[in-house]
Write a structure and sequence with these properties.
Mean pLDDT: 98
Number of helices: 15
Strand order of the largest sheet: 12-13-14-11-10-16-17
CATH topology of the largest domain: Aldehyde Dehydrogenase, Chain A, domain 1
Low-confidence stretches: none
Number of strands: 20
CATH class of the largest domain: Alpha Beta
CATH architecture of the largest domain: 3-Layer(aba) Sandwich
Shape: globular
């Protein structure tokens, strides 16, 4: 069987790739174990040297990688270059910080010497999505490899060019042959890889449905998992917020990556007294974003990554309108080829509508009016997801107080939710478990070992 990369702007098949054959997969797994056996004995300085070289390659070729992202999944060029730059930053961050974060930690006990050490565990399978085809991979790979592990990448089929380019980055950077490899597999073949004793752990970024399935497979074989799943992030605008700034940031938060982000703001919960003013600016900002060819430098909003994804997005919009939501902007399928969908704003959204209950993975915003802070908090937490949240108030202490009550993994006060190598990233409820990034992500795939000496 084979998989294909399809340009979402035109519908053109870019390239078709043969799946990794069973015999080739066996060789890749054996090579990963052998490479890990050598790599785990490299010093942090030696690992860091290779990781810094990966960062240099990413920066030097960022325009090329941005074009690949644009062609395979529709990301506007400027955003693709920024993604490559962020990957380089993560590589440098872990090259600099891993030794201190993973150094032995002394403990006072009844022994003459006691300490905790952090050892790598072996090859880790990463099952990654298409929406941030470089960043999702590097935010796993940079810490996992710096910790001394090997990496196996099963990427989304529609971004196979990106997957192979990432493998080449690590090869050219001087990592041992076989330490990081891409495997091209159908989803049905993943269970066999997870079951293989040469694979010690797995991580998945994707839908909560996919997370449940893979976690069940990993649990059967007692394999560690990290899951970063869906989100329906609330964006709370209180009556004392800088409303215009909140509305401008709201448009950016909703339309980044053409709305295809797990941590994009999706439910805009606005206190009634400032709702009209917020909507006026928000709709204007959403309407101003230029929809078009992701290869055109001026494009701010590209196509959706696949036709089936666009169809589901449109279903969510139209069904929400059928149930009483008001369409203020967009919501119409454009004529012509490609997977384009316009910036869309729905008002009068409430529980029981797809725009509220489901993860809306595209440029459609749900605006919900509430009478006060208490109701804003209730509505924000009335979701099966718990990834990120944004709170807007001119009183930072008030924002921090609400942050303690929000059932999410990240809260940003007066800013849009984003990932940062210095901060842990992940969620609660149906948004998954475990953490990526920071020292918490670095320690997900290590053996936390106690050493006691009499």
């Amino acid at each position: 069987m084979s998989v294909s990369s399809i340009n979402p702007a035109t519908g053109e098949i870019l390239e078709t790739f043969a799946e990794t054959a069973p015999a080739a997969l066996e060789r890749i797994l054996d090579q990963a174990v052998a490479a890990y056996g050598a790599w785990r004995r490299f010093s942090y300085a030696q690992r860091g040297q290779a990781m810094r070289q990966a960062a240099r390659i990413l920066r030097e070729r960022r325009a090329e990688y941005a074009r690949t992202m644009a062609l395979e999944m529709g990301k506007p060029l400027q955003q693709g270059e920024a993604e490559a730059e962020k990957c380089a930053w993560a590589c440098e961050y872990y090259a600099e910080q891993a030794a201190a974060m993973l150094g032995d930690q002394p403990r006072v006990t009844d022994g003459s010497r006691s300490y905790v050490r952090f050892d790598p565990i072996g090859p880790v399978l990463a099952i990654m999505p298409w929406n941030f085809p470089f960043w999702q991979v590097f935010r796993f790979a940079a810490p996992a490899l710096m910790a001394g592990n090997a990496g196996l990448l099963k990427h989304a089929p529609n971004v196979t060019r990106c997957a192979l380019a990432i493998e080449e980055v690590f090869r050219q950077a001087g990592f041992p042959e076989g330490l990081f490899r891409t495997v091209i597999l159908q989803n049905e073949a993943v269970a066999g890889v997870i079951a293989d004793p040469r694979v010690r752990a797995a991580t998945l970024t994707g839908s909560d449905r996919a997370g449940s399935q893979v976690a069940a497979q990993a649990g059967t074989h007692l394999k560690k998992m990290v899951l970063e799943l869906g989100g329906s992030d609330p964006f709370l605008v209180l009556e004392d917020a800088d409303v215009d700034q909140a509305a401008r940031t709201a448009a950016e938060a909703r339309l980044l990556n053409s709305g295809q982000s797990c941590i994009a703001a999706k439910r805009f919960i606005v206190v009634e007294s400032v709702a009209d003013r917020f909507l006026e600016t928000f709709v204007s900002e959403m309407a101003a974003r230029r929809l078009g060819d992701p290869l055109a430098p001026a494009t701010q909003l590209g196509p959706q990554a696949r036709l089936d994804l666009r169809a589901n997005l449109h279903r969510q919009v139209t069904e929400s309108v059928r149930r009483g939501a008001r369409l203020l902007l967009g919501g119409k399928l454009p004529d012509g080829p490609g997977c384009y969908y316009p910036a869309t704003v729905l008002a009068a959204v409430h529980e029981g509508m797809p725009a509220f209950d489901e993860e809306v993975f595209g440029p459609a915003a749900a605006v919900i009016r509430v009478p006060d802070e208490t109701q804003a908090l209730r509505v924000a937490n009335a979701s099966r997801y718990g990834l990120g949240a944004s709170v807007w108030s001119t009183d930072p202490a008030r924002g921090e107080r609400l942050a303690r009550e929000l059932e999410v993994g990240s809260v940003f006060v007066n800013g849009l939710v984003r990932s940062d190598p210095r901060l842990p990233f992940g969620g609660v409820k149906r948004s998954g478990y475990g953490r990526e990034l920071s020292e918490y992500g670095l320690k997900e795939f290590v053996n936390i070992k106690t050493v006691w000496v009499a």
